[in-house]
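RECORD TYPE: inverse folding
INPUT: structure tokens
STRUCTURE:
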């Protein structure tokens, strides 16, 4: 079954939260990742009720920005041996899928609106 962008963003943030239950060090990095990963979904959900096409695209672009930041924090946690390769790969796969879907949604909306 194909997951929607909204559902995938919730899965991603929930996986980050579950991962943190097992990590007791690096609180600053954990907080940054929690903030950026949950912001992805928040911006996607906000975009659904955008008051214009421009607002919709803007909110998706914010989600994409937060997604890219999340990639950085996940890679940093992996490189600092705070999380395992397997844990990192699962999160990276979800994050990359979200990024792909966001870019596709942004580009499709721009093409269909004729305003860009």
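DESIGNED SEQUENCE:
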């Amino acid at each position: 079954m194909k997951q929607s962008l909204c559902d995938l963003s919730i899965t991603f943030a929930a996986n980050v939260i579950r991962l943190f239950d097992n990590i007791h060090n690096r609180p600053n990095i954990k907080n940054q990742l929690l903030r950026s990963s949950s912001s992805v979904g928040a911006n996607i959900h906000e975009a659904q009720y955008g008051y214009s096409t421009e607002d919709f695209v803007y909110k998706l672009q914010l989600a994409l920005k937060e997604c890219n930041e999340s990639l950085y924090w996940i890679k940093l946690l992996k490189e600092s041996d705070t999380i395992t390769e397997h844990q990192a790969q699962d999160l990276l796969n979800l994050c990359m899928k979200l990024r792909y879907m966001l870019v596709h949604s942004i580009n499709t909306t721009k093409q269909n609106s004729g305003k860009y």
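NOTES: Residues 42 and 50 are 13 Å apart (CA to CA).
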